[in-house]
# Entry
Amino acid sequence: MPFIDNKVTVKLTEEKKEKIKQKLGRAVSLLHKSETYLMVGFQDGYDLYLGGKRLANGAYVEVSLFGSASSSDYSKMTGEICRILSEEAGIPAECVYVTYHGLEDWGWNGSNF
# Structure
């Protein structure tokens, strides 16, 4: 059960959200997960500050997943997230920040996996 939460400073059209979601659905295989249970969230027009200065064109992406992956898999995923956001939202890779959260407990449908 992965969840990819995208907080981006730019406004995204529904078409752009759909394209990003589709590409993330393919990319999640880099973490040995399937799109079947992938949840993707968007917060666009989000205010982000770095070093006290507002980022005009940036993103903070949180990737949570049941279990974990290797550092090299996370690195590949970061590269893919940066590529996707650059292509679809015009956010340069140097303004994309990604964190990973492996979880041992994940609840759904009244119980935990």
In short: The longest strand covers residues 59-66. The chain has a mean pLDDT of 96. The two ends are 9 Å apart (CA to CA). The CA atoms of residues 6 and 42 lie 5 Å apart.
